[in-house]
Design goal:
2 domains; alpha/beta; Arc Repressor Mutant, subunit A; 6 helices; 27% strand; 226 residues; binds adenosine monophosphate; 3-stranded antiparallel β-sheet; Rossmann fold
C-alpha cells in the first residue's frame, strides 16, 4: 500500500476534464467576460477553458499556500497584490483543484474587494468535498477521499519534493546512503505511481544541485543524504 494516496494525471485527462467543465458552465446559461487563473495550478485549466468557451480575456492572481511534498506550509495569501477595474465584468475564477479551499477563498475575497467585479463564480476540475471550506460553482469531479493529484505541470516539482521527503524521513531511521535506483524504487512504493525515467533523472539531479544529496567519495553510484 502506498503511503500517500496519489493519482498520476495524464495531459489527455486534463483536456477531457476541461472540456466537460466548459460544458457544465455553458449548460448553466452563465457566460463570463473574463477568466482569472489562480497561479500556478489554475493556468492550464484556465487556458483550456478560454479555448473551449471562446473567451479571449485571461489574467492571473498568484496565491501561495501549499509547500513541499503535499504538505501545507503557509497561510494562503496573495503574493503580488495589484488592482484593476473589473466593475463591468463577470469573472470566472479558475483553479485546478479545491482542496482546503483557502486559495479560492483568499483570491475570491481579494478580487471582490479590490477589482469589484459585477459577479464572480468559481470553477475547478476537482473538488475535495469532505475537507474544502468552499464549494466551487462549477466542477467535474467531487472527490470523497483525499488524494494528491499529480498533475503533469507539477511532475518535476512533485517528484523532487517526494524524493526529498523520502530521503529526510529515512535519514531519521538511520539510512543515509542511496543509489538512484533505490530512491526510485522507494518513490514507487511510497506514492504508488511511476512518473518515468526522465523525471526521476531530472529530480535526482535537482537534489544534487540543492545539496540534499552528495556523491560519496570514491563510490561511483552511491550518494549521501546531507
Ligand atoms: P487549496 O488552497 O488547499 O484548495 O489548494 C491550493 C493549491 O494547491 C491547489 O490549487 C493545487 O494547485 C494545490 N493542491 C492542493 N491540494 C492538492 C491535491 N490534493 N492534489 C494536487 N494539488 C493540490
Amino acid at each position: 500500500m502506498p503511503k500517500v494516496n496519489t493519482k498520476l494525471v495524464a495531459w489527455e485527462e486534463v483536456v477531457e476534464w476541461c472540456r466537460k467543465l466548459a460544458e457544465v458552465i455553458e449548460g448553466s446559461g452563465w457566460r463570463p467576460d473574463i477568466i482569472v487563473a489562480i497561479a500556478r495550478g489554475g493556468y492550464v485549466p484556465a487556458r483550456l477553458l478560454c479555448d473551449f468557451l471562446d473567451i479571449h480575456d485571461l489574467i492571473s492572481i498568484q496565491i501561495l499556500h501549499w509547500g513541499k511534498a503535499a504538505e501545507i506550509t503557509a497561510k494562503a495569501h496573495v503574493k503580488y497584490p495589484y488592482t484593476i477595474d473589473l466593475s463591468e465584468k463577470r469573472v470566472l475564477l479558475v483553479d485546478d483543484i479545491v482542496d482546503t479551499g483557502d486559495s479560492i477563498i483568499v483570491a475570491k475575497e481579494y478580487i471582490e474587494n479590490h477589482w469589484k467585479p459585477q459577479e464572480i463564480r468559481v470553477a475547478a476540475m476537482q473538488w475535495i468535498s469532505p475537507v474544502a471550506k468552499i464549494k466551487p460553482d462549477y466542477f467535474v469531479d467531487e472527490v470523497k477521499e483525499w488524494i494528491w493529484y499529480q498533475y503533469p505541470w507539477t511532475r518535476a516539482e512533485d517528484t523532487t519534493n517526494f524524493f526529498e521527503k523520502i530521503v529526510s524521513e529515512k535519514k531519521k531511521e538511520g539510512k543515509v546512503e542511496w543509489t538512484f535506483e533505490e530512491l526510485v524504487k522507494e518513490f514507487k512504493s511510497w506514492y504508488g505511481i511511476d512518473v518515468g525515467e526522465a523525471y526521476y533523472k531530472l529530480s535526482f539531479n535537482r537534489l544534487l544541485k540543492t545539496g540534499v544529496l552528495k556523491k560519496k567519495c570514491g563510490c561511483k553510484n552511491t550518494y549521501i543524504a546531507v
